[in-house]
Design goal:
Shape: globular
Oligomer: single chain
Helix content: under 10%
Structural class: mainly beta
Radius of gyration: 22 Å
Number of helices: 1
Largest sheet: 19 strands, mixed, barrel
Length: about 350
């Protein structure tokens, strides 16, 4: 079975960033389930997607499965009145249909978060795996100021073929707005699995390229690395110069025992601007996850330190010449109680 285009770099992305999302807020998660229903309640010290959030927030997600009909329904709401609903159905082997809709309150509306409804079809058979979807996005009339480009129909398709550990494929998405259709982006890539090693390569419009490698050293230890190279066009309005960007990440995951898992990563971002100036940012962090099955609970502790080096700094394998400037430190905690 081939690897989906959206998963070509998933192994490396998960190892480098999956658990670090918890750092946005400290959370207490409570889960409960029976044969058909799962309930998840979250209490946060602040709302992760809302600026200047300082008061406690919460959310509830309910998932109900109808196994006899190969269907599943999911409902979600939170203290900011955000609402989402999703229905999945598998009418026959290889085909999955997904209908989704959400309501985004005015204070959370942005270019990446808008009220929308979508229908998606996923199909896999033999050497083929594909997905096609249509999303209608509508800007709430009461949002002020209006976020441009928030009322349109978006169409996205992707397909991959593969055999013997090698998958190749591509994806494309476009937007229909004011009676005009435009191709927003497209990408092509490949994924190769050779024993315990996985390689991935993906490019968007041949304007940037991301490559990754994942190696499972043992049942307890995995390492992964990812390199992304892209270019940024000059923007006089934003006073931005043309630049080349290189992002390098290295991650390690190690399970000490059934209860304790460690994930750590190092990331370096290099921006070479037109004119020869160089900006360098480093970050390193980790996640410690501990499960306590006797109490049906899980504790996650996260930390991340960001540093910025001055222009012209010289870096060797042993020393860093120059004084660090800027930077920040973030810590987070997430406690989950209930079904694991």
């Amino acid at each position: 079975m081939p690897v989906a285009v959206g998963d070509f770099l998933k192994k490396f992305g998960d190892l480098l960033s999956k658990k670090y999302k918890k750092i946005k807020s400290n959370e207490l998660v409570v889960k409960a389930s029976d044969s058909n229903m799962d309930i998840e309640a979250v209490i946060m010290n602040k709302y992760p997607d809302l600026k200047n959030s300082s008061s406690p927030e919460g959310s509830v997600k309910v998932t109900y499965s109808l196994k006899e009909y190969n269907s599943k329904m999911e409902l979600f709401t939170d203290s900011q009145n955000k609402f989402t609903a999703k229905i999945e159905n598998k009418p026959f082997k290889g085909l999955k249909l997904v209908a989704k809709g959400n309501g985004i309150p005015p204070q959370l509306v942005s270019k990446k978060a808008q009220t929308n409804g979508s229908l998606e079809a996923n199909y896999e058979q033999g050497m083929f795996k594909g997905k096609a979807g249509v999303t209608y996005v509508k800007q709430p009339a009461y949002k002020d100021p209006v976020v441009k480009g928030c009322e349109a129909a978006k169409v996205a398709v992707e397909a991959s073929v593969g055999q013997n550990g090698i998958s190749v494929g591509g994806a494309a998405s476009g937007k229909l707005q004011d009676g005009k259709y435009s191709l927003s982006k497209w990408s092509v890539g490949s994924n190769i699995t050779a024993g315990s090693i996985i390689f991935g390569l993906l490019t968007n419009k041949f304007e940037d390229v991301t490559a990754g490698a994942h190696y499972k050293m043992s049942n307890d230890t995995s390492v992964g690395t990812q390199v992304a190279i892209s270019s940024v066009k000059a923007d006089k309005k934003k006073e931005m110069k043309a630049a080349n960007k290189t992002d390098i990440g290295l991650g390690v995951e190690h399970r000490f025992n059934k209860a304790t898992l460690l994930q750590t990563k190092i990331e370096a971002n290099f921006v070479s601007e037109e004119g020869g100036s160089l900006k360098t940012d480093f970050s390193y962090g980790g996640v410690v996850e501990y499960k306590y099955p006797q109490l049906a609970s899980k504790l996650q502790l996260t930390g991340k330190i960001n540093m910025q080096l001055p222009i012209g700094v010289l870096i060797s394998t042993k020393y860093v010449v120059g004084v660090y400037k800027g930077g920040s430190t973030n810590f987070g905690i997430c406690c989950t109680y209930g079904d694991q």
